[in-house]
Amino acid sequence: MSASIGIKQPGWFGRLFGIFRRPKDPITKGIYDAMAVLDRMINSIEATKKSLKSMREEHSRRAKLFASEGKKEYEDIFMNEIEHIQSLILMFNKVQYDLMRVRYRLETLTLVEEPMRQLPEVIQELQALKPEVEKIAPELSTMLLEVERKVASIMTSSNMSSALNALSYTKNKVENEASKIMSETQQKILPPLPPETTPVTVKVKEYNPVPLPLVKKWIIEEIKMNGGVFVVRDFATRYKVPKHIVYDALKKLEEEGLIKLKH
Predict the structure, then answer these.
(1) Considering the domain boundaries, does residue 120 fall inside one?
(2) In 69-216, beta strands by DSSP E
(3) What is the rounded CA–CA span in Å between residue 263 and residue 246?
(4) pLDDT at residue 217, rounded to an integer
(5) What is the pLDDT of residues 129-141, one digit of tens each?
């Protein structure tokens, strides 16, 4: 006995209601976008499983027919194929289960104040799923990469937002302190002019939220998908990775002998 799991698509009322409750927060919206891609993958796997089960029933019918006719060699062909189909269904079940686990983990993160701590673990789970997905449904690998890219993009935008907030907070703090000093100086009516205030420069530390090994992995997959053609500018824009990080990753890949650059 086997159990099937699927994601039910919402009706027109659900889609209309979803428009009004669509998240405005960019991080939450990015998570929902990633969930939508996972839903499509889960539904695709469910459809393939249904086709396999239908084929298994047809092979079983043929095996019984040949058995009734005493054609044991033909019966064995279909019985062996039934076993193969059953093993495939079990593999699809496992991948579908893992995808749903990641999908609902992301849904849980939409209710958490600090989801960023869990996102690196989600990326690791997606990377661990890739070999299994490629084995049973290579056409879904692109969608899995899209989910991974969306999650990494959420991390990138969140870190940029944090840096800008820190810069704004520091700038306001400096301006308030300077205003307070000027107010106190004017109240005391001191004869000499107050000393010139040395401008404070706030440096925002450059931060690359996407690990270099992950960028290298994306580059290899991009080269494979584009038949050996790779455009740095297009890649940096699509994956939201700084160009200098892309060049570093390309240099590392060339040093490792995985690619050869045209200088």
Answers:
(1) yes
(2) none
(3) 16
(4) 84
(5) 888 888 888 888 8
